[in-house]
Each structure stands twice: as C-alpha cells, then as structure tokens.
Amino acid sequence: MKPIYLDHAATTPLDPRVLEAMRPFFSETFANPSSFHTPGLRAKEAVAAARQSIAKHLNGREDEIIFTSGGTESDNLAVVGVVRALKTKGKHVVTSSIEHHAVLEPLLHLKKTGEIDLTILPVDKYGLVSVADLVVALRPDTVLVSIMYANNEIGTIEPIADIGRAILKWRKDNVTHFPYFHTDACQAAGVLDMDVEKLHVDLLTLNASKMYGPKGIGVLFVRRAVKIETLIRGGGQEKNIRSGTENVPGIVGLATALDLSQAEKDVENARLTRLRDRLIAGLLAIPKTRLNGHPTERLPNNVNISFIDIEGEAAVLYLDAEGIYTSTGSACASTSLDPSHVILATGLSYEAAHGSLRFTLGRSTTPEDVERVIAVMPGVVEKLRHMSPVNLDMKYFN
Amino acid sequence: MSQPVTPATEDARKGDVVAATKDKGWFYSDVVKEHFFHPRNFMEDESAYADAAMGMVGSPACGDAMKVWIMVDPATERITDLKWKTFGCGSAIASTSMMSVMATENGGMTMDDARKMRPQDIMERLGGLPARKIHCSVLGDKALRAAINDWYRKAGKTDKVEVEQGRVIDKVLNVTDHDIEEAVLDGADTLLKVQAKTKVGTGDPSCIPEVENLIRFYKEKYFGA
C-alpha cells in the first residue's frame, strides 16, 4: 500500500528540481563566498542571484534579504533584534496567542528578563486576530507587532494586509516610525502572496523546509531603515546582521523552492483546496467531530478536526499502522502535557483539544489518498471510542 | 498494511525508561504496540456489568481517563474478571490492557495483592515506556484500587476500604499529590500559587509538568474548570 504522508505543515520533501539546482554547490562550487578568488566569486554570484530572485518574489530589495538558519532563527532575530535595537524608544510588544513557539518563546523570555511589556492578543473561535483589538493595544512605547501570516496548526490565514495598513495609519496619526510590523510567513511562503508592499510588513520570516526546499535555511526580510540588533556576531556577513559563512546550497535551494512554489501556486492551490474540502466533508461525516480553524480563510492544504471522546495520539498511531502519517494538535508527545496552545486559544475545551488531528496535504496527495483516509478514519474512531469511557455532549463543542 | 516508519533499534525496543534524550524519541516497545493495537479485556457491553464493582480515575480534560470494572469471588477474594475503558494516548491504552492481564492471569490476583500493584510493575511487563509518559498515563493501578474499594463498600466490608495514601510527586521535598490537592482546594489555581504554598518543583523541577497536570485535574474535579 502506498504510504500517505499528510504532515506537510511539519515539513515537506525536497523537490527533485530543487535538489538538482543545489547539487553543484556542495562539491564543485563549494568555495566561501567571502574568498577573494575565482571559485569564491562563483559562490558569491550564486548567493547574489538567489537573493535577487527572492527579493523579486517579495517585491523588496536585495539588501533587505537576510539569510539565516531557518524559521526559528529568523523569528528570534526579528523579535529580539528589534526589541534590543529600539530599547531607547520603548519596550512594548504586541503579539497573538496563536503564534509559533519561535515567536512566543523569545518574547516570553524578554518579558521575564524585564526587557519588554508584552500584550498577547486573543483570537476568535476561528483563530483570527481582530484588527480593531490590535489597534487598541498599541501604545506610544510599542516598538513591535508580530502576527503570523498563516497558522501552522489550524491553517487560519490572518488579515496581514489589513493589520499592516492599520499600523501604517497609526504611525502616521501619531507621527512616529514605530511600531515595526513582523510576520512569520513560514506556512504561507509557498502558497500565498508574498508582496511586502501589499502586506505592509517591515519584517517577514520564511523558510525553505515548508515549501519543498532544504531544511536549515531561512530568510528574514528586513525593510531598509528598520533598526535591528544582531544576535550572531562574527565575520560580518549579511550586512553584519547575521555572521557565519553562507549556506550556499541552502540559499540556492531556498530561492529555487520559492520560485517553483510561487510559479505553480495558483494551479496547485486550486487542486489542494478541492482535496482539502473533500477531506473535511468526508471526516465531518463521522459523528461527534468538529473543524478547527476558519472554514474559508485557511491554508489550502490544512485540515484540523477534533474527534470528540478520543485522544489524538492514539488515533495517530492507528493511522500510522495503516501507512497514513498525520499529527496531533495535542502535545502529549512533547515535554509539555498541555494540549495545543493554538486550539485552546480558539476557545475549545481541553477535552476537544486532546482529540484534535491535523492532516496537511501536499504535492504528492492524490484524490485516491483522500478517499482512502475517508474510508479508514471511521473505523479508527469507532475502535477508539469503543474503548473510551468518555461520552461527552456535543453541545459543548459547537 | 503495517508500514514501519522507523526501523526499531534495540534502544527503541527497550523504551526510554530511564532518561530519554529527545532524539531517541519515544518509540513504544513491541509489547506496548501489541496491547495498543489488540487490547485485552476491554469493556464490550456495560449492561452485563451493571452490578460489578467499578473505579474511575482521571478526566478527559487532562488527556487521560479510565474506568475499571471487577468481578470478585467472595470466598477467595480473587479477581475473576476485569474489564476496562480508557481515553488516552497509546501508553494509556496499553498500560490499562496490561494491568487487566496481570490482575486476572493465573486464576486471578487476590485483592490484597492487586492493591500492591504499582505503575512500575505494569511498565516492566510492557517492556518500558517513554519517561514522560509514565506519570501521565499509567493510571490503571489507581483505577483498580478504586474498584477494589467499591467492591468492599458494596460487600458491606467498609473496614477494608483503604483511603489512598498520597503519592510523592516531588521526591526531593516529599510533596505528595494530596498536598497539591489541598493547595488547589485552598484556592491556588496556578503553578506559581501552588508553589507558593507547597514549594513543589523547587526541589525536583522535573516533576513540574505533572504538577501542572494535577492542578488542572483538581481544578476540574472541584471547580469544574
């Protein structure tokens, strides 16, 4: 039986075309881009071409693209770097309750050390941040707003352009350059419009490993004139914002992956959306289920469903035995025993959060795969419910 | 049908009972898998056990809940039959299944012996569990003790009903689950407030996830939130 990988939000496989583009940069064009000889120059040209291509997709400039080791580093650099660079301007930061840990954890750390005051905005039952709430939260000493573009667990797409416009207006009304606006676009990069002028963002995180590129490479877009303090000091690469010898194959891989994803996104999004909606409908036909996240404002590949009265991990393991690879929103498997902070933030009870399952589709997903999941899932749910002493009333979950 | 994702290494087979470095993961042992995919003695038809003694522990909000029914020979006080239902992750289901086997094999345990069953005994028979799974999911022995109390209560032998001794949570400071229960009843509803009363976790920080779980459990038990 063909294995069915439905965990593309965790990471995607490397596209063979990306691998081909990267191949020469391991053993042939391997030199250090900072070296002052011909092979070094070749590597430097490759980095420059990649930077140019990425800048074009973001509608930014080449000197606004900073390469990092991935999404987590880009997020850390964005929030910690801005807070420290602007410490004389203010110490207030606004974020949302459903951000990735790569944003929340550094912010909570800065709060703990007393470097910032932190406002964590709630979300509605679909996981949406309210633009009005956000504007109310802004203060004269607010230096940074960080809201993700699309959520990794429930797939909800945030109104980034509206938030960006509201922040621009607030800055104009208050005659200030601050706060800066950062968005984590890791889940969105291969799927949504990345034009920073339309989004009105000052900083934007993306990485390659969610769009069929290699792991270990990311970008932080930093708008010109935005002040940011480096976290990694050394040889002064990346405009002294991020030292370290450039990961040339990774950089080439990221640029190629972004190129391919953006070129194919209209066709692929339409295909995935059809498969997604079929999977949602098929799974919601199982009794006592509920869709987590927004019904329409969601990533084309994300399905997140709570199966009431069962625990997500048990379902993941039963599906695994069928060759269907999914993940759970419940963090039973991680060091924390709490269920997903994202699903809890949408107001769902602990009970329903424990029963949530995420299926994230990708380029390899076929209609047959979706039908197979729809055929297999009722049996898994029935078996686990049969074993479960819990029988909760659905009125609490709608 | 079966598609092993990762070849089970010798370490994985043993389970990371001792420490668990994160990258060794939390693979379940073959015995755990066997009991997870083919659970023994689980309750098919509750109506046939309406008169049986029953015990329940945990709550779905905490991520684990289980119910245990027992039938006992009044003459020998041996457990002749045990059925269960469990809401929880793979190790919760497997450990309850294994507990049911241990309680009923070889003619059935006496209730006195069954009361001495510890989570470690179940784990040993399972071939180990990932470290962070132990406290959250091995509740079968507690549900069994609750069912035994219920049996004695129903049999009118109230002198044989045993109130649970506190379970030590913070081994360094000897703080028990009862201390945490008391603190929650006293109005401490966050980890910080419970720590202010009990200092739990300051001696042995590794118990903090379990403390948070207990706080939530007792909050729900007493305040429904």
Give a written overview of the molecule.
- The complex is a heterodimer of chains A (398) and B (225).
- Chain A contains 13 helices and 13 strands.
- Chain A is of the alpha/beta class and 398 residues long.
- Chain A folds into two domains: 4-10 and 265-396, Aspartate Aminotransferase, domain 1 (Alpha-Beta Complex), CATH 3.90.1150; 16-260, Type I PLP-dependent aspartate aminotransferase-like (Major domain) (Aspartate Aminotransferase, domain 2, 3-Layer(aba) Sandwich).
- In chain A, the strands form three sheets. A seven-stranded mixed β-sheet of chain A has the order 2-8-7-6-5-3-4, sandwiched between helices. Chain A has a four-stranded antiparallel β-sheet with strand order 9-10-13-12. A two-stranded parallel sheet of chain A has the order 1-11.
- In chain A, strand 5, helix 7 and strand 6 (180-184) form a beta-alpha-beta unit.
- Chain B has 225 residues and is of the alpha+beta class.
- Chain B folds into two domains: 24-160, Sufe protein. Chain: A; 168-223, Arc Repressor Mutant, subunit A.
- Chain B has ten helices and five strands, in the order H-H-E-E-E-H-H-H-H-H-E-E-H-H-H.
- Chain B has helices at residues 10-14, 30-37, 90-104, 111-115, 119-126, 134-137, 140-154, 177-185, 191-198, 208-223, and strands at residues 53-59, 64-73, 78-87, 168-170, 175-176.
- The longest helix of chain B has 16 residues, at 208-223.
- Residues 1-25 of chain B have low confidence and may be disordered.
- The A-B interface holds A 1, 3, 309-311, 313-314, 317-318, 320-323, 325, 330, 332-333, 335-339, 349-351, 354, 386-390, 392 and B 1-3, 5, 22, 26, 36-37, 39, 42, 44, 56, 60-67, 85-90, 92-93, 132, 136, 209-210, 212-213, 216.
- Chain A: Its cofactor is pyridoxal 5'-phosphate.
- Chain A: This is Cysteine desulfurase NifS.
- Chain A: It comes from Candidatus Uhrbacteria bacterium RIFCSPHIGHO2_12_FULL_60_25.
- Chain A: GO terms for molecular function: cysteine desulfurase activity; iron-sulfur cluster binding; metal ion binding.
- Chain A: Keywords: Iron, Iron-sulfur, Metal-binding, Pyridoxal phosphate, Transferase.
